[in-house]
């Protein structure tokens, strides 16, 4: 048992912290207000190696471990969760599966550009009637010679209009249930592929969330990832890792709000002394710090299990379930510590509170995490 981060981990953490302060913090309030995607910032994240952190350097990745990835996610999410979700989707939901299950040609053509951040990717599972119930896919891909003809609609797709490469889950044989689902690589600009409306969201407002429509889109058969029928397992395995990234995002949102509340409590005076000297505030800070530390341990443990090649499905669900609840609790308390100032945009904590909510919803709601965990417990 060793709770010490290595020199390399500390360097990654420091680089991410510095980047978040110098590149993400300026303009974060305006991007939130205007629902503006942090395009230049995400491009710089690619240049610094944040968009393909765990990918083999042979495919332009950083060759780092999952612990490094969660450390970077935490630091970036303290400041800008809209930028960090783009990073998380690209790393965990797009690059990971392409590297693990893609053909050499797919890796050459797509993974190299995704891992370097030259382009970004999107993962398209959710549909208007298939969110939590992911097996109920309506999007279908019918084989036609050397192509599949893709038809359907996807909803709530992160990086929806900014991505260039889309991993699309679709039904290839409805009679086989979840064993008749496959995954395809689709490029932006292909005939019949239309990017639909942008969602106007409560939080992560800078993140680019869209519906997508596919009408008779011709997808080359060579763009299927893995065998026909492997798509559902592919999506589930992908989400096992994705949930570690979102858990780290939730941890970062909580830690960011806590750091702001701590600093504020030392400056703000009431009844003749800094509010940090009042027990009502001290108890809040103590609870926040304890919850964050417990969430951090679950996040690191899930990342460590993945790095060790051990089963991490349940650990990642636990980390996401707990860290997202902590993000919600802590951000609400951070607003409370700030009093009236916490309710206005300038002090950042109201944004973090709004951003926290999505971590209990995407990549599986808290209820889905409980299903995954209870299945592990009852096994
Ligand atoms: N890991 C690996 N395989 C898994 C798995 C997991 N966590 N969960 C299920 N599977 C496999 C099962 O082993 C089974 O395979 P076999 O038939 O070969 O044994 C198969 O998948 C079907 O499993 P179930 O019968 O358990 O399926 P189910 O219909 O009961 O539901 C579920 C499973 C866990 C509820 C699943 O549907 C689920 O995770 N739903 C939530 C989907 C989700 O997280 N969506 C988020 C969208 S992505 C997103 O938000 C991205 C973004 O933009 C930020």
TrEMBL record:
Pfam families: Acyl-CoA_dh_1, Acyl-CoA_dh_M, Acyl-CoA_dh_N. GO terms for molecular function: acyl-CoA dehydrogenase activity; flavin adenine dinucleotide binding. The keyword Transcription does not apply. It comes from the Bacteria. Keywords: FAD, Flavoprotein, Oxidoreductase. Residues 122-217 form the Acyl-CoA oxidase/dehydrogenase middle domain. It is an enzyme of class 1 (oxidoreductase). Its EC number is 1.3.8.10. InterPro entries: Acyl-CoA_DH_CS (IPR006089), Acyl-CoA_Oxase/DH_mid-dom (IPR006091), Acyl-CoA_Oxase/DH_mid-dom_sf (IPR046373), AcylCo_DH-like_C (IPR036250), AcylCo_DH/oxidase_C (IPR009075), AcylCoA_DH/ox_N (IPR013786), AcylCoA_DH/ox_N_sf (IPR037069), AcylCoA_DH/oxidase_NM_dom_sf (IPR009100). Its cofactor is FAD. Residues 231-377 form the Acyl-CoA dehydrogenase/oxidase C-terminal domain. The keyword Amino-acid biosynthesis does not apply. Residues 6-118 form the Acyl-CoA dehydrogenase/oxidase N-terminal domain. Belongs to the acyl-CoA dehydrogenase family. This is Cyclohex-1-ene-1-carbonyl-CoA dehydrogenase.
